[in-house]
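Subject: Interface between my chains keeps coming out wrong

I've been trying for a while to get a sensible model of this assembly. When I model each chain on its own everything looks fine, but I need the whole thing in one frame so I can look at the contacts. Pasting all components below, labels as-is. Any help appreciated, I'm running out of ideas.
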Amino acid sequence: MKILLVGNPNVGKSALFSRLTGVDVVISNYSGTTVEYKKGVMKLGREKAEVIDVPGTYSLEAASKAEEVAIDMIKEGEIVVNVVDVTNLERNLYLTLQLLEKNIPVIVALNFWNETKHCGIEVDVKKLEKLLDIPVIPTVAITAEGVKALVKNIKNAKKHSLKNTDNERWAKIGKIIKQTQKITPKRHTFLQRLEDLTINPLTGIPIAVIVMLSVFYIIRFIGEGLITYVFDPLFGLYLPLMQKLSSILGNGFLHNILIGQLIDGKIDFLQSMGLLTTGLFVPIAMVLPYVLAFYLMLSILEDSGYLPRLSTLVDTIMHKIGLHGLAIIPMMLGAGCNVPGVLGTRILESKRQRFIVITLLSIAIPCMAQTAMLYGLLGKYGIKGLGIVFLTLAIVWIILGIILNKFIKGEIPETFIEITPYRMPKIRILTKKLWWRMKGFMKEAIPYMLLGVIIVNILYIFGVIDIAGEIAAPIVSGIFGLPKEAVASLLVGFLRKDVAVGMLLPLGLTLKQLIIASVVLTMYFPCIATFVIIFKELGLKDTIKSSLIMIVSTLIVGGLLNLIL
Amino acid sequence: MITLEQLPKGKEAVIMGVSAGHGLQNRLCYMNIRTGKTIKKITSQPLRGPVIIEIDSRQCAIGRGMAKKIFVEEK
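Reply #2:
Try treating it as a single job with all components included. I did that and got this:
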């Protein structure tokens, strides 16, 4: 049996999904967290049922890619659990009525039931059940309240094939609301006052600047703290162990692969390039602390409901580069890892917008893993090092955005952002989401990292790097002014950008060369994991187009930096 | 009758009609922004940015172009 969870965006479908199936999925407090359907299995009596978490949709007519996915899914379902936000009943019922026209069994989960009280809303569930003529179960998905009752009643789902026009639907909804819902006007709460303060430009813009700066500093603070007080000491204990192993192994192939090269007779975790040294040190001691800090802050922003407000405030600026304010969300996801960033572009309505965001994202937004390494490489030069790199990327982001907006045909659709109410982030959900994302990072980063280290060693052993260096010398040395050994780093950059940045260290580059290499590494091409997702999202033609833009802009920017600096 | 764009900040109004193509009307409609509903204009973003309205005690950002096509009667 196939059970579909269908409902408006941000009504708690994913929370319910993870309650029903035990499968962890990312849930947040903004519309369009789920852009891809997710499948899981639940027990229904003795049977097993497949549960599908469908992206949120306002109606059964598609306006965005995520909604298209939703509508296609409904055609395949056998039972629909229509998740309804009880605090916004009138609007939610529109989709319910549309579902009742599809001749498919429907049951309603009246979610956010716990919020009715403080919203001053009373809903007569029995009456609603009678009027809709389908089972209606109040639920609180994040605390599991009512979920058992929902499961018990799934078999009672009832199908209808009503025929209504638009106006008839709204007329019906009006009648239902009148008979089942009572709203007592409530006083302005603290959160509502905060809603007004953060959306009014006069107060909202300064608050946005403060929020983003704080986020940046907190990430740095947590990341640095973890490195200094946890991971550096940890690897300090690990070092003697590796020294011993090194002397046992002696010289030879195995030593080269596991421990790598000795620098001045000692292991250097950053430069040795062995599986057990650099291969573990870079992802765990240099990248992980920042990734952890980043996802903690992102999760808080997501769950509080601040992101839609930020999107609204930046909407005007984003329009200049052909985008909606909402495009800030995939960009921010991309600053963590470009893969979810690219997937996140599905909340945008047009193919054109998705192309622009994906191209800008892969060119000018380094992922957290790379940023952490850049910080390690250039941090000590301060504004003159890291500052120039990020300033360059920001300028590229703006100018390229303006150019793409000019030359890619099509209009920017009107802004339309649902601003979800503020909610206090729940610690349980935060930690779960953080754990889930960190697990994803470890699964993704460490194997690729180790593979990268092995490939580097093999390429060196067979002299491939030298040959590639000769071939690429006109570009790498001629245009970018880098030594031809930097080619090795650019090659590995396809696999993992963080290892690639680390490989610049032993080359003894000047500050100018470090800056150029960092910018080029960020811009020239996304890592392989991102590239695969881009290909899936954009298709062959647009992927080629996007890749050409990446290569050309890298040549121009890298060359210019070489001239100017 | 004025447009939503002209409606002063902080004022409540009733939607009298939407003069737009089918697609846009539908989109607004699915969000419950339709003739007869009462809305409140919270603010509008500078430099022709979106207009923020409150409907059914939910906030929503609507592009200027769209706001010009929504006709309202101040309460």
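Reply #3:
Confirming on my end. Chain B touches chain A through 27 residues (CB under 8 Å).
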